[in-house]
Amino acid sequence: MTDKQEKTILSTRDVRLWYGQKEALHGIDLDFPNKGITALIGPSGSGKTTYLRALNRMHDLEDGVTVTGSFNFNGTDIYAPTTDTVDLRKQIGMVFQQPNPFPFSIYENVIFGLRLDGVKDKAILDEAVERSLKQASVWDEVKDDLHKSALGLSGGQQQRVSIARVLAMSPDLLLLDEPTSALDPISSRNIEETLLKLREDYAMIIVTHSMSQASRISDRTAFFLSGDLIEVDQTKHIFLNPQKQETQDYVSGRFG
Ligand SMILES: Nc1ncnc2c1ncn2[C@@H]1O[C@H](COP(=O)(O)OP(=O)(O)OP(=O)(O)O)[C@@H](O)[C@H]1O
């Protein structure tokens, strides 16, 4: 890895999160480099999605959720009262489990955020559409249908258009919450290949239930269990030579 790749984009310390009275995260310390993919793995209910959603303040939209701890993103505090969550979510974009195209054309889907920002220059919008769809590896499939509804695309194409919509905002960090779990195996592989290309230029954090997916695409893996971070390391170490017994049990399929 080069020096550039070793810079930290996000650091969290002692992250705790309560749903009402119930503490779901028990003090998570994690650092993320500014390039490459970190996979969050662990059994159902271990807190992976809860942690991921805390990173761009998605829990602000839910009642009764309390978040504490420090979240340093490129030198700024994610939870500072002055942080604008709309701006934050442009810098830390999110891709969900279900592809979520809006009922508009492919073109309008990709530039949705730019339009909200008031961008009107057609050349800028055209460039953003082409660049983002190319980055999301779906340009060749949709370039002749940009003004047709995104709802007419396959699930896998919709998911890549959803990724393009996030990329159009030029984010620094992408959060992906089980982005292939609703897709067939071929579409899943296409998304994985897209993410492998993007990892050269972006920091990404992916929640996945698939250990084979984590081992195929991630540089680092963090293992969660019952709201605790058990171990984080280079992916090959987590799968081949984990330091903790719980990690060993999980990756060898003994539970979860
Ligand atoms: N909105 C909510 N209200 C109350 N409890 C919740 C809520 N969302 C999650 N939880 C609880 O928080 C804990 C962590 O859940 P979370 O969904 O983060 O786990 P996960 O590891 O992502 O699981 P999965 O792999 O099944 O998605 C679980 O005990 C879950 O029941």
TrEMBL record:
<dbReference type="InterPro" id="IPR017871">
    <property type="entry name" value="ABC_transporter-like_CS"/>
</dbReference>
<dbReference type="InterPro" id="IPR003593">
    <property type="entry name" value="AAA+_ATPase"/>
</dbReference>
<keyword id="KW-0813">Transport</keyword>
<dbReference type="InterPro" id="IPR005670">
    <property type="entry name" value="PstB-like"/>
</dbReference>
<dbReference type="GO" id="GO:0016887">
    <property type="term" value="F:ATP hydrolysis activity"/>
</dbReference>
<dbReference type="GO" id="GO:0005524">
    <property type="term" value="F:ATP binding"/>
</dbReference>
<keyword id="KW-0547">Nucleotide-binding</keyword>
<dbReference type="Pfam" id="PF00005">
    <property type="entry name" value="ABC_tran"/>
</dbReference>
<dbReference type="GO" id="GO:0005315">
    <property type="term" value="F:phosphate transmembrane transporter activity"/>
</dbReference>
<keyword id="KW-0067">ATP-binding</keyword>
<protein>
    <submittedName>
        <fullName>Phosphate ABC transporter ATP-binding protein</fullName>
    </submittedName>
</protein>
<feature type="domain" description="ABC transporter">
    <location>
        <begin position="10"/>
        <end position="251"/>
    </location>
</feature>
<keyword id="KW-0592">Phosphate transport</keyword>
<dbReference type="GO" id="GO:0035435">
    <property type="term" value="P:phosphate ion transmembrane transport"/>
</dbReference>
<dbReference type="InterPro" id="IPR027417">
    <property type="entry name" value="P-loop_NTPase"/>
</dbReference>
<dbReference type="GO" id="GO:0016020">
    <property type="term" value="C:membrane"/>
</dbReference>
<dbReference type="InterPro" id="IPR003439">
    <property type="entry name" value="ABC_transporter-like_ATP-bd"/>
</dbReference>
